[in-house]
Please model this.
Amino acid sequence: MAYIDFIAPLHKATRRDYLARVNDPEYPKAKAAELALKWGVEYWDGDRRTGYGGMKYDGRWRQVAELMAKHYGLKAGDRVLDIGCGKGFLLYDLTQAVPGIEVTGLEISRYAMENGKPEVRDRMREGKASQLPFRDGEFDLVFSINTLHNLPCYDLDRALREMMRVGKKHRYLCVESWRNESEKANLLYWQLTCRAFFAPDEWDWWFRQTGYTGDHSFIYFE
Model:
């Protein structure tokens, strides 16, 4: 297991007003979270206060695709699974970074899939991270970015074990975390869908508990 951060440049490029979000009179935090947790238009393409505020493809994930491809030595014919693939932007960018790669995405949101990147829409399947509809050792790389922290403990346990089961070589996940009380407060203020509010040592406990031996990184709200 190694700490490898492919995501920080994208995360840090976004400016966040934590107090404005938690104190918004039109979208009180509970209301915003209820809308986001439908995983529909409000979350993906609605108001920024209830999710992404309109997720459109702009190529920003290409740098992540290239970093992952280089680090894991991905090549044509390799099979890759993205758990929580959203609209499939990273899936598409992986096909551009590594021509001939075989990509599959799993996503709980039917809206995201129906409005995803057309070039990879047929490679996306609806399903849950805790119940992967794939064979043991089916993929050369299994990864999950900004997804598993949305699961309750019982599903998180199963999801980490499932990542191990369907992967045969490489695994990588990125989840939200906090290192101090300021970052914990910012995470609580900003998040809409998070269920697993764990510090790094607690995430390490989860990895040991479930036998997860893949790579990982954390997103912090500084």
